[in-house]
From TrEMBL, chain A:
Keywords: 4Fe-4S, Gluconeogenesis, Iron, Iron-sulfur, Lyase, Metal-binding
Region (Disordered): 291-310
Cofactor list: [4Fe-4S] cluster
Name under which the protein is recorded: L-serine dehydratase
Top EC class, one word: lyase
EC number in record: 4.3.1.17
Pfam name, any one: SDH_alpha
Encoding gene (name): sdaAA
Catalytic activity: L-serine = pyruvate + NH4(+)
Serine dehydratase-like alpha subunit domain residues: 16-276
Source organism: Paenibacillus thermoaerophilus
Pathway linked to the protein: Carbohydrate biosynthesis; gluconeogenesis
Record family assignment: Belongs to the iron-sulfur dependent L-serine dehydratase family.
Automatic annotation (TrEMBL), chain B:
Keywords recorded for this protein, A-Z: 4Fe-4S, Gluconeogenesis, Iron, Iron-sulfur, Lyase, Metal-binding
Protein family (similarity comment): Belongs to the iron-sulfur dependent L-serine dehydratase family.
Domain of life where this protein originates: Bacteria
Pfam families: ACT, SDH_beta
UniProt-recorded name of the protein: L-serine deaminase
Record carries keyword Plastid: no
Annotated ranges, domain ACT: 150-225
Organism, as annotated: Paenibacillus thermoaerophilus
Catalytic activity reported: L-serine = pyruvate + NH4(+)
Pathway assigned in UniProt: Carbohydrate biosynthesis; gluconeogenesis
Length: 310, 225
């Protein structure tokens, strides 16, 4: 790739007269040695998986294997349709769709990691609801995914995208930044406006710890995806209104690296801190794991000395 | 760059719930299986470190690793039943958890035995978004991602070996993207890992295996089937 920072990405797009999405498609084709139409089709297929996950999350039973979560997307959708909600129909629907995809993920259904599975609801939530609202084609949405991917590529290589490494700011925060930047571009914003949307969105996620109850991608991951979709809409609106990220977006990405690296291990996906260690979180963990091992035929669990665990 | 392209950020298409603990784990299992060869191992021993050790049951990391050992791709719905499928196919699986630190929080060591093949071991980490990094193979320190077609050439350390390998690949019009050599001692056992842009043909693999002082070649390609 010819860019390693967000600023280089915006600069290249502007110089070459391309959207960030168009630029990323060309870069990916060059990098992989595959023709553009093939690379485009792979991304279009991913968008199909995302739309299917939204549908399944709203129509099918999404109870997770643990039984802890499921059905919230439908609750929020019904609320959006039947009442005068606080957010308004547009934002509440984006939130419902994001919850839907995250619930499909928790129930071991098929999703696309964007950038991870723990954050898989935000981009589909924002994209699918915006596509319905504005009547955009699947082709337009696919270019949007390339834009989101370009932003995520910079974040991932300069900071991190997984909760285990950098907390939830890295996971959900990156997805919010990617969705905000891509939506800004889809709504006609310039590459520079898209870049500001990324910085504005990331600022609002800094410090978010990864504290999944029982270590599962369920509580609080699913609702954070719902909130994340709404934040992405807000950040795109700010950028489109002309609000700038005074701290340059690349510097915000560096701050995320600094903050994430300083996080104690207990706040990085280990379930040893945060919500996972509340009285209720501990009780859930006890219920899930307290009653011996999962029985699975030829499989046995041993400790590092080779002795069977009690 | 840890992440090479747009599809390591958007993608993979996968069965949930965690790209680190599920999709990355599937890929780690598949890399080990591809190194082992075509036959199903009779026994798989998996040692989990860090966050893998802490949370593998809730995430289905065990199901995903075994799914990978069965050569399933990241979005294969059979992953949910992989433990049962492995048992029916005659592969016994042992999980162990280790408390020692292992460099990256999501690390696994996989040892595969049986099937008339030499034992194979591999250590790798799931680094986020379904991406993996292999750090050790059969006692050699290496570094590859399995994002590209990857050759593992086991040989005796000697002058000109790297040149011989690259000459053969060049003659077959295969471009080398990354190369990594590790040896246990001077003139002793060595492993050269080559990531390529194009997949070498079976004939080229056979030619590589026939090079003087080459003992074995294995080929890992997660791109097609």
């Amino acid at each position: 790739m010819r860019f390693t920072t967000l600023e280089q990405l915006a600069q290249l797009s502007e110089t070459e007269g391309l959207t960030i999405g168009e630029l990323m498609l060309k870069e990916q084709a060059a990098e992989s040695g595959r023709p553009e139409h093939e690379v485009f089709r792979q991304m279009a297929d991913y968008y199909g998986v995302m739309k299917e996950a939204v549908r399944r999350g709203l129509e099918e039973d999404t109870r997770s294997r643990s039984g802890l979560t499921g059905g919230d997307a439908r609750r929020v959708m019904a609320h959006a349709e039947s009442s005068d909600s606080n957010l308004g129909y547009v934002a509440e629907r984006a939130m419902a769709y994001a919850l839907a995809v995250s619930e499909v993920n928790a129930s071991m259904g098929r999703i696309v990691a964007t950038p991870t599975a723990g954050s898989c609801g935000i981009i589909p939530g924002v994209f699918v609801s915006s596509q319905e609202r504005f009547g955009w084609s699947d082709e337009t949405m696919t270019y949007g995914l390339f834009a989101a991917g370009a932003i995520g590529y910079v974040i991932a290589n300069n900071s991190f995208i997984s909760g285990a490494e950098g907390g939830c700011q890295a996971e959900v925060g990156s997805a919010i930044g990617m969705a905000a930047g891509a939506l800004t571009e889809l709504r006609g914003g310039s590459p520079w406006q898209a870049l500001h949307a990324v910085g504005l969105a990331l600022k609002n996620s800094l410090g978010l710890i990864c504290d999944p109850v029982g270590g599962l991608v369920e509580i609080p991951c699913i609702v954070r995806n719902g909130f994340g979709a709404v934040t992405a809409l807000a950040a795109a609106d700010m950028a489109l209104a002309g609000v700038r990220s005074v701290i340059p977006s690349d510097e915000v990405v560096q701050v995320m690296l600094e903050v994430g690296s300083a996080m104690p291990e207990k706040h990085r996906e280990t379930a040893k801190g945060g919500l996972a260690q509340t009285p209720t979180g501990k009780r859930i963990m006890q219920q899930l794991y307290g009653k011996g091992e999962r029985s699975a035929g030829a499989v046995k669990t041993v400790n590092s000395e080779g002795e069977a665990e009690a | 760059m840890r992440f090479k392209d747009v599809f390591s950020i958007i993608g993979p298409s996968m069965v949930g719930p965690s790209s680190s603990h599920t999709a990355g784990a599937v890929r780690l299992g598949r890399v080990a299986r591809k190194m082992f060869g075509a036959n199903l191992p009779e026994q798989a021993e998996l040692i989990l470190y860090g966050s893998f050790a802490d949370t593998y049951k809730g995430h289905g990391t065990d199901l995903a690793l075994v799914g990978g050992l069965l050569d399933f791709d990241t979005d294969d719905p059979r992953i949910r039943d992989s433990l049962r499928i492995a048992e029916q196919a005659g592969m016994s699986v042992i999980f162990a958890t280790a408390s020692q630190p292992a460099g990256h929080p999501n690390t696994v060591t996989i040892r595969l035995r049986g099937g008339g093949q030499p034992e194979q071991s591999m250590t790798g980490a799931s680094i986020g978004g379904g991406n993996v990094q292999i750090s050790q193979v059969n006692g050699f320190d290496v570094r590859f991602t399995a994002m590209y077609p990857t050759l593992l050439v086991y040989h005796r350390d000697r002058k000109g070996m790297v040149a011989d390998i690259s000459r053969l690949l060049s003659a077959g019009n295969v471009n080398i993207g990354h190369m990594d050599v590790d040896r246990k001692s001077r003139s002793g056992d060595a492993l050269t890992v080559v990531e390529t842009d194009e997949a070498p043909t079976p004939d080229m693999l056979a030619d590589l295996e026939r090079l003087p002082d080459v003992t074995r070649v294995s080929f890992v390609n997660l791109r097609n089937g």
